[in-house]
From TrEMBL:
A biological process from GO: carbohydrate transport
Organism of provenance: Vanessa tameamea
Gene Ontology terms for molecular function: symporter activity
Transmembrane segments: 45-70, 76-97, 109-127, 147-175, 187-207, 227-246, 285-305, 325-344, 356-376, 382-406, 418-438, 458-478
Protein name: Major facilitator superfamily domain-containing protein 12-like isoform X1
Entry keyword annotation includes Translocase: no
Gene: LOC113398936
UniProt-listed Gene3D superfamilies: MFS general substrate transporter like domains (1.20.1250.20)
Coiled coil: none
Length: 489
């Protein structure tokens, strides 16, 4: 289904001209003679710009709760509150960054600022704070340890939001061509998957190379420290290459030279340049698109957070499987994501963004049903790997397709791209944080009372996200068809 998301009555008449001229405009912005190969290299270099964020996100969602609960021995509700704090700060920073990034300085300048904030804080999140050993100075730890990590999380999440929004806003700044936007979105997701694979592979290597243990315990704090320092080194190198090599040259729209005839031809383009954010806020499609993105991200985030905790829960029943399972299973999950994101790169425009989203949500729902019906504590490990592959496939398809729908919504309004992305991602941060906080709040203090708690989380919380995504897509399709069927005045 082809939908002109970002079009208004005034820009429909010029859209074809923009599409016809976009390849010529891109070629004029590229200084080297072998233009086609240079453009492809620039597209791939674009993916490096978010790699440090992706490395941090994989570590944050997959191992933050595990580190806080199993290593620092925080209560589950306090650890959940730490994650909620991070999501709330991220959500509040997102629209502010969107407004400021569209008005002041360049996208790359904002991007570099965010990278520096992340660099200064992220490694410290997985290093035990001074005098924070369990069973020592308990009253001191009750306020000092949460306060210390809360400050780090606040600064880290502000930097993370700056990098995310500025990097997303680069896509509509480069081109109006929907095919190239979809390609850049797929490349960005492929870079995210590769980054996450690196995190899980490094974690697996560290857990295997160091003193072996059947489950995670407080003395394993140095393992998380080593992993965080290694991925920080990789992330710093990636954004240095991005800022040195990647050249952001926004596409240029035709300008009026003052002649009467030409000013009339360029009037629609001048209207596009002056369009206000109120135009988008009045569009129901903006909120429908936000729901698609929110539920795809919620499924992805809850899977990342609770798959390692589910595996740690399983190790209490089957300790012989080894603690490296918390790294090898997410590794399989992301290999599956990488494969499907690669397939989407060239095929998503053929099948349509909405159809792709439905397929991804359906695969996600099947994985949750599989966990509920077949993955008991005694189930074979091979089934867990198969379910992980299914989770990875569903996550890849829904995330890429939802971002493509958002890029379509922006259309030619690239000068407001950062703000639109911030609106779409705002609810995602809050919903994810609230969901994790609620899940941790209802967790039993005694594991014996609810031995399969996290299995239920993967079944009902993740499955509910997939169902809500399908419902949001259905509402979007129905409303779009209804608006298209109305006679135009």
């Amino acid at each position: 289904m082809n939908v002109t998301y970002g079009a208004t009555k005034s820009n429909v008449s010029v859209k074809n001209d923009i599409q016809d001229n976009i390849d010529e405009e891109i070629d004029r912005s590229i200084p080297y003679r072998p233009r086609r190969w240079w453009r492809i290299n620039q597209n791939h270099l674009y993916g490096l710009g978010h790699m440090y964020n992706d490395l941090c996100a994989a570590m944050w969602f997959s191992y933050m709760l595990l580190f806080f609960q199993a290593v620092l021995e925080m209560r589950a509700v306090v650890a959940g509150a730490m994650l909620l704090l991070g999501q709330v700060v991220d959500a509040l920073a997102t629209p502010i960054v969107g407004i400021l990034a569209d008005k002041y300085s360049t996208k790359k300048a904002w991007h570099l600022t965010g990278c520096l904030l992340v660099t200064c804080t992220f490694p410290l999140l997985f290093i035990r704070c001074r005098n924070c050993w369990p069973n020592k100075n308990s009253e001191y730890l009750m306020w000092w340890m949460p306060l210390y990590y809360a400050i780090l999380i606040t600064i880290f999440q502000i930097g993370w939001a700056v990098v995310q929004i500025s990097h997303l806003a680069i896509i509509p700044s480069i081109t109006d061509n929907l095919h190239i936007r979809s390609e850049l979105t797929s490349i960005r997701y492929m870079a995210s998957v590769i980054s996450s694979l690196a995190v899980y592979f490094i974690t697996w290597i560290v857990l295997r190379a160091t003193n072996y243990s059947t489950f995670i315990r407080p003395t394993d704090d140095y393992k998380f420290r080593d992993v965080s320092l290694i991925i920080s080194g990789i992330g710093i190198l990636s954004y240095i290459i991005f800022h040195v090599v990647f050249k952001l040259k926004p596409h240029k729209q035709p300008k009026s030279n003052g002649h009467a005839g030409e000013s009339g031809e360029n009037e629609p383009l001048n209207f596009l340049a002056k369009s206000k954010i109120m135009h988008f806020l009045q569009m129901p499609l903006l909120y429908q698109t936000s729901c698609l993105y929110v539920f795809s991200r919620l499924y992805w985030a809850l899977s990342l957070v609770y798959v390692p905790l589910f595996l740690e829960e399983r190790l209490s029943v089957n300790p012989t499987e080894g603690s490296e399972l918390v790294a090898s299973v997410p590794l399989v999950l992301y290999i599956s994501s990488l494969i499907f994101s690669f397939l989407l790169k060239s095929n998503i425009n053929k099948i349509g963004h909405q159809v792709a989203y439905f397929i991804g949500s359906f695969l996600s729902l099947i994985s949750c049903m599989w966990i509920a019906l077949a993955i008991s504590p005694e189930a074979n490990v091979a089934q867990i790997y198969l379910v992980a592959a299914l989770i990875g496939a569903g996550s890849a398809i829904t995330l890429v397709s939802s971002l493509c729908v958002t890029a379509d919504l922006i259309g030619p309004h690239s000068h407001q791209g950062a703000l639109i992305y911030s609106i779409v991602t705002f609810a995602d941060k809050l919903v994810t944080g609230i969901a994790v906080m609620a899940i941790e709040n209802y967790k039993c203090d005694d594991a014996i009372s609810c031995p399969q708690y996290y299995r239920g989380v993967l079944t009902y919380a993740c499955g509910g996200s997939a169902v809500l995504g399908i419902l949001s897509l259905s509402i979007t399709i129905i409303s779009t068809n209804h608006s298209k069927s109305k006679p135009q005045t």
